[in-house]
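ok trying again, last paste got cut off:
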Amino acid sequence: MDKDSAPVVSAIALNAIFGNEPKFSHNLIDALGSAEAVFALSEQQRLELFGPYNARAGSIGPAALEAAQQEYEQLSARGVQFLDIFDEGYPEALRECPDAPLLLYVRSATPARELFGGRPAVSIVGTRDQSLYGRACCQRIVRALGEAPCKPLIVSGLALGVDITAHAAALDCGLPTIGVSPVGVEDVYPRRHTAFVERMVATPGCALVTDYPPGTFPAAFNFLRRNRIIAGLGGATILVESRLRGGGMITARLAAGYGRDVFAVPGRIDDLRSQGCNLLLREQLAAPVASPEALPAILGLGRLRLTRKAELGQAVQERFGAALPPDEVGRLVQIARLVHEQRGICFDEICRETGIDYAPVVRAAGLLEEEGFLSVDLLQRCTINTKKV
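nice, full thing came through this time. structure:
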């Protein structure tokens, strides 16, 4: 182990031993002066420091350092980067947290030291069981943040539902995004997001981060540890949708405990996926997201320079007017406006509302989806694409 890598290697070893108790690592380093000093202790000194009954004291020794050195060399060869809590590039907002991880593993096309210092970060979290309303709200929030004069970093946890919607919307809007993983840096959870993660880590300013050593598999406790990083990285946390219990609620409460701003999207009182948000609002732990377009100013990112976009019907008319007969264009406009008013409406309901036969409705929806005006899910529920309106 050379002099330059000694601090990181020692941090890797300490993180492997005390990763679930980062405060213990902090106390050790405060008492001894550095992570390297912990591994310089003699057996007698360890006994005096830890006492005779500490189960993990015996893990501190040459074997732990050798394993950490091997891990450092193997991961470095694969392009993985490391940020220990003493590195100047370690995110300052996270460093302020009393249970900040001693070490972060980072996969990114950008040097790790340049990821966190240049812009404010906003954490966006929520349920895996995302509704069409939640998806549209998440996209609209990210789009508003992307139009702010000061562009933030979007942080989330790569989970299904709100998390991956926030990450994808960030990339679509040209915002950098950080995915905090509940497994080792060489893995992706859930696996179905592997292709997206590869795209994300190849995008400048974006990264996959974790404090878990390689070989860590998803377990319930891992998500709690992951959530504290999401809450700690964000200067503000936005809960889009959540049941009364869930990772999003835990993250929001952690963020409030760190003294960060917390926001929640209000939902219907009879919707289970909004009960968590409504509870935080009732407890006054979160401020309501009444207007996504007002968020940038509230967060200190500057006011949006709002430009009047073409009304939806006009936009549809401009796109199809020269290519289709007037009666068919009128049908497209009618259906687009109806979907805009009734998010999640399905084909049968469109037929009943408009009096248009099923086949023309399917054709119209297909044309509108092909041009990006709306999205249709497997149950034939339609929702307007927020990037178009």
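cool. The CA atoms of residues 156 and 163 lie 5 Å apart. Residues 62-77 form the longest helix (16 residues).
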